[in-house]
Amino acid sequence: MKLPYTDLHLHGATELNYLQQRFWGKVPVRFAFSYLLFRPKGRVQRLLHKLKYKGAEEVGEHLGIRYGSILFDHGYATHFDLIIPVPLHRLKLRRRGYNQSDGFAKGLSEALQIPWSNKVLERAIDTDSQTKKSRLDRWQNVEQVFVVKKAEEVSGKRILLVDDVLTTGATLDACAHTLLQSGCHEVSVTTIAAAQL
User: Fold this and answer.
1) What angle do CA 26, 31, 33 make, to 5 degrees?
2) Beta partners for 188?
3) Closest residue by Cα to residue 178 from 110, 125, 105, 99
4) Roughly what angle, to the nearest 10 degrees, separates helices 100-112 and 57-73?
5) Per-residue pLDDT in tens (0 to 9) along the chain, 197 residues
6) Sign (positive or negative) of CA dihedral 72, 75, 76, 81
7) Among residues 150, 147, 139, 71, which one has the least CA distance to residue 108?
8) How many CA atoms lie within 13 A of 114 on its CB side?
């Protein structure tokens, strides 16, 4: 009840959607949404810290179901064919034990009644954490990092790309470029939380 919701789904792909603007001139993104507003040292940061580092894997799926239900009620289920989470590198996945974006994608899939897959997109290079990097360093850190394993699974599809937090958009931009180059029809993005720059 007390979480800071963005309500960006109410603005669709218009200029009122500040998240949409983060991708302008970089990569064509159909919709850009985020469920919660990320503020340093706020409730959402503490929630995401538990999700990513304290083993609270179920939090992601719960948030995905809640946000997916909102998107479903606003008619967005008809805009996507497949939900894909931003992947972790296999070494980081082994250390953490799970991908925090997978649960959110799975919850969205359940609420929107759209298939999801964590087998399509792969992080081929193990990059450093983005959290303490400058804006330029974030972009350079994820260039040519992602690959599509099976192009036929994305060919002609409208993809909803999912991540935990959006700050500069560098990771989502790199993933979206890779998906579009592999033949998907269009990419939309959503995250659990987004920082308002």
Assistant:
1) 105
2) 160
3) 125
4) 30
5) 689 999 999 999 888 899 998 999 899 999 999 999 999 889 999 999 999 888 888 999 999 999 999 999 999 999 999 999 999 988 888 888 899 999 999 999 999 999 999 999 999 887 655 455 555 554 455 566 899 998 999 999 999 999 999 988 889 999 999 999 999 999 999 999 999 77
6) positive
7) 71
8) 25
Q: What 8-state DSSP symbol labels residue 128?
A: P
Q: Cβ distance 145 to 125 under 8 Å?
A: yes
Determine the residue type at 114.
I
Name the one residue in this structure whose structure tokens are 């920082």.
Answer: 195
Closest CA relative to residue 9, chosen from 74, 105, 96, 83: 74
> Do the Cβ atoms of 35 and 43 come closer than 8 Å?
no
Measured CA to CA in angstroms, residue 156 lies from 81, 95, 151, 162, 179 at distances of 9, 35, 10, 19, 10
Closest of 163, 141, 142, 154 to residue 181, by C-alpha: 154
Length of the chain: 197
